[in-house]
């Protein structure tokens, strides 16, 4: 058994995320039999002395049937109405289900600011610590009814990874309708199951796609991103089927395990690379990509081929390679309006007051390692 699986099966603090597709069906709404089976596995794990936070999607899915909505609505206002109705049903179902084990649940609805803004972090951390110390099971979802298109997470995989970092979890388990990561969308058939991801090279060449259920949002893509986010924070992750929750939360012998990175990022660098919102993009040539990603150098104006977005000095931006892949994130030292005159030029050609790195190495986190 791999180190990652051992760590998850022995974790004292665990975040478990369950997706909409594992709890709801479009026509019938919330499937309480499946919810109960999940709670059975979680209660078992809690009884084995694990402090566990459950991040549960499904509010929108659970709100469809009571509002006589046939399928997941596309517009935000109807999604919010469905979430408002569905979240109540979801919380009620969890309270009842955990009640069978005399476990108390606490509902925590978060906006992205609560986990993305560093100043708000402490607040959320305190709430979780207190709930866990009191023996309750926090049940988390995004506060969908107030989240606008601009600020919403949209997918709970990322939220779960950030919560795992926030509560200093020892493991993250992402439960879905699919039993593992495959080298292509398994609906197509002929795909191979991947059981261990030890680093970026194991992900190269895989075709990881969007959701298929019509209820989930992020698909496998957002699960892989979340597992990598956790790994960067030193937290191993497991992607498995909700139907196999007992095995995933027991010996962790199922699904796809993502190994934690050896070089655990500091809280500031983790925030910079994985939590902060970005305001624009800097396009890099191949030489600049090699310098910042492999050699960990600062980004100079000479290696930038273009900029977009609306940012000011001090904002966080994405650094993208010629294939449009985000390869790093960093704090930019210039306003967007200043850069067009500087890019592509060597530092010594620049006016004295602008002779500095565009993104300093200390403020830059490579994302593909
Ligand atoms: N490479 C892949 N491996 C596994 N699943 C994939 C892959 N590419 C796309 N998918 C799809 O992603 C879906 C899971 O995502 P999603 O429906 O958003 O789940 P959830 O609601 O649990 O978040 C799977 O049902 C599967 O069809
Ligand atoms: N907050 C939304 C969930 C959004 C979401 O991430 O869904 P999923 O891809 O099923 O995990 C809800 O409760 O419906």
Automatic annotation (TrEMBL):
> In Gene Ontology terms, what is a biological process of this protein?
L-proline biosynthetic process
The cellular component terms of Gene Ontology attached to this UniProt record, alphabetical and capped at eight, are: cytosol
Q: Where are the membrane-spanning stretches?
A: none
Record flagged with keyword Transferase: yes
Binding residues annotated for substrate, in chain numbering: 57, 144, 156
Which regions form coiled coils? Answer: none
Q: In which residues is ATP bound?
A: 17, 176-177, 217-223
Q: Which InterPro entries does UniProt cross-reference here?
A: AceGlu_kinase-like_sf (IPR036393), Asp/Glu/Uridylate_kinase (IPR001048), G5K_ProB (IPR041739), Glu/AcGlu_kinase (IPR001057), Glu_5kinase (IPR011529), Glu_5kinase/COase_Synthase (IPR005715), Glutamate_5-kinase_CS (IPR019797), PUA (IPR002478)
Q: Give the subcellular location.
A: Cytoplasm
- Recite the UniProt keywords alphabetically: Amino-acid biosynthesis, ATP-binding, Cytoplasm, Kinase, Nucleotide-binding, Proline biosynthesis, Transferase
Domain of life (superkingdom):
Bacteria
The entry lists its GO molecular-function terms as:
ATP binding; glutamate 5-kinase activity; RNA binding
List the CDD domains hit by this protein, alphabetically.
AAK_G5K_ProB, PUA_G5K
| Enzyme Commission number | 2.7.2.11
Q: From the UniProt record, give the pathway where this protein acts.
A: Amino-acid biosynthesis; L-proline biosynthesis; L-glutamate 5-semialdehyde from L-glutamate: step 1/2
This enzyme catalyses: L-glutamate + ATP = L-glutamyl 5-phosphate + ADP
Q: Record's Pfam families?
A: AA_kinase (PF00696), PUA (PF01472)
Q: Which family does it belong to?
A: Belongs to the glutamate 5-kinase family.
Q: What does this protein do?
A: Catalyzes the transfer of a phosphate group to glutamate to form L-glutamate 5-phosphate.
Q: What is this protein called?
A: Glutamate 5-kinase
The organism is: Prauserella muralis
The organism's taxonomy opens as: Bacteria, Bacillati, Actinomycetota, Actinomycetes, Pseudonocardiales
């Amino acid at each position: 058994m791999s180190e990652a699986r051992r760590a998850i099966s022995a974790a004292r603090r665990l975040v478990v995320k369950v997706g909409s597709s594992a709890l709801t069906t479009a026509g019938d709404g919330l499937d309480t039999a499946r919810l109960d089976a999940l709670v059975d596995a979680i209660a078992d794990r809690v009884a084995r002395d694990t402090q566990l936070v459950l991040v549960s999607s499904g509010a929108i899915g659970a709100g469809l049937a009571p509002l006589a909505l046939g399928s997941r609505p596309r517009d935000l206002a109807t999604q919010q109405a469905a979430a408002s109705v569905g979240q109540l049903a979801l919380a009620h179902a969890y309270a009842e289900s955990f009640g069978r084990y005399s476990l108390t649940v606490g509902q925590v609805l978060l906006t992205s600011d609560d986990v993305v803004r560093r100043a708000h972090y402490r607040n959320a951390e305190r709430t979780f610590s207190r709930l866990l110390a009191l023996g309750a099971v926090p049940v988390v979802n995004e506060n969908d009814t107030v989240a606008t298109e601009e600020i919403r997470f949209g997918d709970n995989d990322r939220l779960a990874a950030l919560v795992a970092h926030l509560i200093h979890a020892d493991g993250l388990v992402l439960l879905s309708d699919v039993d593992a990561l495959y080298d292509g969308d398994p609906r197509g058939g002929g795909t191979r199951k991947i059981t261990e991801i030890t680093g970026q090279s194991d992900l190269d060449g895989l075709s990881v796609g969007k959701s298929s259920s019509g209820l989930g949002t992020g698909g496998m893509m957002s699960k892989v991103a979340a597992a990598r986010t956790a790994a960067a924070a030193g937290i191993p992750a497991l992607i498995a089927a909700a139907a196999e929750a007992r095995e995933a939360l027991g010996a962790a012998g199922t699904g796809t395990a993502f190994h934690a990175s050896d070089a655990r990022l500091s809280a500031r660098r983790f925030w910079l690379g994985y939590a902060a919102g970005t305001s624009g993009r800097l396009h890099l040539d191949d030489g600049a990509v090699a310098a910042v990603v492999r050699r960990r150098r600062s980004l100079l104006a000479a290696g930038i081929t273009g900029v977009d977005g609306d940012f000011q000095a001090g904002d966080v931006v994405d650094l993208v390679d010629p294939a449009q892949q985000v390869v790093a994130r960093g704090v930019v030292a210039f306003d967007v309006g200043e850069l067009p005159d500087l890019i592509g030029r060597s530092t010594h050609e620049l006016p004295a007051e602008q002779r500095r790195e565009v993104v300093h190495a200390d403020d830059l986190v490579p994302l593909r390692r």
